[in-house]
Amino acid sequence: MSSRSPVQIKDEIEKANQQAAERMMESDPVWVDIGLARKVIPGMKERMLLHAGPPIEWGRMSGPMKGAVIGAAIYEGWARDESEAERLAKSGEFTFDPNHHHDAVGPMAGVVTANMPVYVVRDSKYGNKTYSNLNE
Hints:
There is one protein chain. This protein is of the alpha/beta class. Helix content is 36%, strand content 22%. It has helices at 6-26, 37-40, 63-76, 82-91; strands at 29-36, 48-51, 95-98, 104-105, 117-123, 129-133. A four-stranded mixed sheet has the order 1-5-6-4. Strands 2-3 form a two-stranded parallel ribbon. Strand 5 (117-123) and strand 6 form a beta hairpin. Helix 3 packs across helix 4 (82-91).
């Protein structure tokens, strides 16, 4: 049990939020590469789909996210059509993991798979890298 008071916790949260906002404003992002996700994103594996938001399983995904997963499975060649992709997703054949667990982001439903090309962006001030799939 924490010995910190609610006021102390609130102050710590405000300080952390201020520090995060300052780091975002001070960052110096530089586009350094484009590569296949499986080659550049830490921890990326075959049959893994990175996605926007918190950890989630197939049954709890929104319609747009399910659509992105289906499209990605067909893109990767894991499924021939929508029904096969849905069956595989329901079966646990794919690994779903949040983008932010891999220093990545994604537009829309945020789905990134192993053979999708991604931008590699390095923050020249702080040294961290991030990844995002290409999108129109």
